[in-house]
Design goal:
single chain; mainly alpha
Length: 74
């Protein structure tokens, strides 16, 4: 009975769930009659990506004439 009262007044509940458990949690909440909306996380570049972008902005990147040339350099 207490849970019913809480859900009447609760507008939004945000929880972080591991990717491999999302399906289970969503099914449980739907079974309880709670609407579920998945919030997409914004992609935030990590330190390596930021460093690579800064390197390119500084003009220190390599230019290739073709995709084959690029892959052959790796």
């Amino acid at each position: 009975m207490v849970a019913e009262c809480v859900f009447l007044y609760m507008q939004t509940l945000e929880i972080n769930v591991p990717d491999n458990k999302t399906h289970i949690v969503k099914e449980f909440l739907k079974e309880m009659g709670i609407s579920v909306k998945v919030k997409k996380e914004k992609n935030v570049p990590n330190a390596d990506t930021i460093a690579a972008m800064n390197e390119l902005k500084a003009g220190n990147g390599k230019k290739f004439k073709s995709v084959d040339e690029l892959f052959n350099s790796i």
